[in-house]
Amino acid sequence: MFVRHAAKRVAGYRQASTFTSIPVIDATALVQPNQRAAAKAAVAAQLHAACRDVGFFYVKNHGIPAALQQGILQQARAWFDLPEAVKNEILIRPDKHFRGYQRLGANVTRYDGGYQRDWHEAIDLYREADAAAVAAQGLPASPIHGPNQWPVQRPAFDQLLRLYLNSMLGLGSSLMRGIALGLGLEEHFFDGQRAAIQDSYWCARVIHYPPLTEGTFHRSSASENDASSSDPAGSSGTAASAAAAKLHDAAAAALKGAEVDRAVQLSCGEHTDYGLLTLVNQEDHVTALQVKNARGEWIPATPIPGTFVCNIGDMLKVWSNGLYKPTAHRVINADPSLSRISIPFFYEPAFEARVEPVARLCSADRPPQFPPVRYGNHLESKVLNNFEL
Ligand SMILES: O=C(O)CCC(=O)C(=O)O
Ligand SMILES: [Fe+2]
Question: Can you tell me the ipTM of this complex?
Fold first, then answer.
């Protein structure tokens, strides 16, 4: 039975708590061979507390070599320095399966009543799915299935990226085993049809955030009917410059933790992630990612060298029957002298996975809170709406 998300709190389920810091979890027992069950259980308990109370955690001792974690950020930075015409060789397009390079402002965050363009450029990649092979298996087609547009303009980056993504897939799978144990399920619960490493429809975004400075501001869609306002503010006269300065003040206040109008342009607007588990590799020199607690306070996810900052998405909310909920976050890079690279890796369910509350996490007191969803449908509904190309 499906019960519409109840306004009242369900017994035993906490709301995202009033955390003021993000826990750091040592993943050794999940990623190294021959670990004792008790050691795995101890990490699983920490993951459980973090997923239930915060929705975010850092992982350290995750097994990804420092040279790879740092090297991929450096290679990405060099790729974004290429001329726009070169980057456009792999421009994201619907007929390229929504994969490839997206220009500054192409990615949008939607909110009730409009959307705002996010001030970043990125390369989007997913598990590659050959349309003919999908058809041969008797599975439905999808506009997202296809090959990636790899950043072949810099072969060293292209090669390292493939190695990096493969390593991240392994780490994501290991963490999902810990999360399964933390939920009181068997270690391999997410393997098989749900989110096995060989089927995870993973996604990765290689992102460059130039600073939010006055010259970069666009008005939100709410004012795009006005022809003059779709230009970058500041390029169309004094009034526009004044408006841009005001918006920049709002973004600067947001960086200090203020709540801002959704129409204010940020590096990435407030959102929750739609998948299972996100692992963010962020540069160490700038704090830009912020996480919202239950009191509405924005807590900075300050970089901790050598870690990944991880968070959970909608699909874990469904499988855990609401025990875990995704936490809202946003990115603000407002210092005019800094730019930032981050690479979120999204460990996701299989495209054909049926995602539904786990029976063992449902009871008479806690009936299923969400209807079953095919992950591919959920993904399509998000990806096909993420861009204003
Ligand atoms: O760049 C980051 O730190 C996070 C980006 C993010 O939240 C996302 O891509 O979903
Ligand atoms: Fe996110």
Answer: 0.99
Atom 1 in ligand 1: residue holding the nearest Cα: 342
Residue 19 reports pLDDT greater than 60: yes
Task: Give me ligand 2 centre to Cα 291, in Å.
Answer: 10
24-26 vs 268-271, strand pairing mode? unpaired
- Between CA 378 and CA 38 the distance in angstroms is 36
The ligand 1 atom at the shortest distance from the C-alpha of residue 207 is: 1
Whether ligand 1 lies within 6 angstroms of the CB of 106 is answered as: no
Q: Is the shortest distance between the CB of 99 and ligand 1 below 6 Å?
A: no
285 CA from centroid of ligand 1 (Å): 16
| Least confident residue range of 64-78, 165-179, 228-242 | 228-242
Residue type, 58: Y
Q: Letter for the amino acid at 268?
A: C
Cα 311 to Cα 51, 58, 99: the distances in Å are 8, 9, 23
* Closest ligand 1 atom number to CA of residue 340: 1
> Which residue minimizes the CA distance to atom 9 of ligand 1?
344
CA 275 – ligand 2 centroid, Å? 10
- At residue 16 the predicted structure's pLDDT band, cuts being 50, 70 and 90, is low
CB burial string 128-137: b at 16+ within 10 A, e below: ebeeeebeee
Decide if 291 contacts 299 (C-beta within 8 A): yes
> Distance between CA 172 and CA 159 in Å, rounded?
20
User: From the CA of 70, how far away is ligand 1's center (Å)?
Assistant: 17
Cα-flanking dihedrals φ and ψ of residue 165, to 5°? -65, -35
Task: Tell me which residue has tokens 């210092």.
Answer: 335
Q: What is the pTM of this model?
A: 0.91
